[in-house]
Design goal:
By secondary structure, this protein is an all-alpha fold. It is 75% helix and 0% strand. The chain contains 9 helices and no strands. Helix 2 packs antiparallel against helix 3, helix 2 packs parallel to helix 8 and helix 3 runs antiparallel to helix 8.
Length: 216
């Protein structure tokens, strides 16, 4: 369990963070707009999956060890940027005929799920977030270990994040559904996602990532 006295402050911080636009929000929103609700839902689930994995790593202390290495963070940043650039290039060079016939295309949904997972896992800032944010709400006034507390805090964060993203998908997916009926939009929907992936790559590669410093 966690110290319930810090829960109101933690929930306030989480809600504030969810309302700040970021790469995850851009990917999920653009997926919903370009391909419809089903794909947006799978992108949201992919984002939640990566969040749970990062939570597990943080609770085990593995992510802290990685985050202490500037070289490891830079390798993650470059690998993540290269991955996003490749996805953008693949989308841009695809033919209009590759566009899904319907918004419920299962292969496309699975593809966006995987992309959402790897996009977040290869983002060193996501790793640093879990290393720096969750420990602030670990209490020394209860018997539960810090690792167990971070696990619970991370699960709360991921559940709220998933609910927020699904709500966004429902709203944006309504607009996307009407766009999918447009032949002109369908001919360019992969190019829209390609542009989004290039923006995400530039966002990641241009950002400065510093290893956290320990103070004794």
């Amino acid at each position: 369990m966690i110290d319930l006295s810090i829960l109101p402050v933690y929930l306030t911080a989480v809600i504030a963070l969810l309302l700040i636009p970021g790469p995850d929000m851009l990917l999920i929103a653009s997926s919903s707009l370009s391909y419809g609700r089903r794909v947006g839902i799978f992108a949201s689930l992919g984002n939640a999956t990566s969040g749970i994995l990062l939570t597990l790593l943080a609770s085990l202390g593995v992510s802290a060890l990685i985050a202490m290495s500037p070289i490891a963070l830079q390798v993650l940043r470059i690998a993540g940027g290269a991955y996003l650039l490749k996805m953008g290039w693949d989308c841009l060079r695809s033919n209009p005929s590759d566009a899904p016939e319907v918004a419920n295309d299962r292969n496309l949904a699975r593809t966006l799920y995987r992309r959402a997972v790897f996009t977040n896992l290869l983002n060193p800032k996501a790793l640093l977030f879990f290393v720096l944010f969750l420990p602030q709400f670990v209490s020394t006034h209860i018997a539960t270990s810090s690792g167990e507390q971070m696990l619970v805090l991370g699960l709360i964060l991921n559940i709220l994040g998933l609910l927020f993203n699904l709500g966004m998908v429902i709203m944006i997916g309504s607009v996307g559904k009407s766009l999918l009926n447009s032949d002109r939009f369908r001919n360019n929907q992969h190019k829209v996602m390609g542009f989004v992936f290039f923006v995400l790559a530039i966002w990641l590669l241009a950002s400065e990532v510093h290893a956290p410093m320990l103070h004794g």
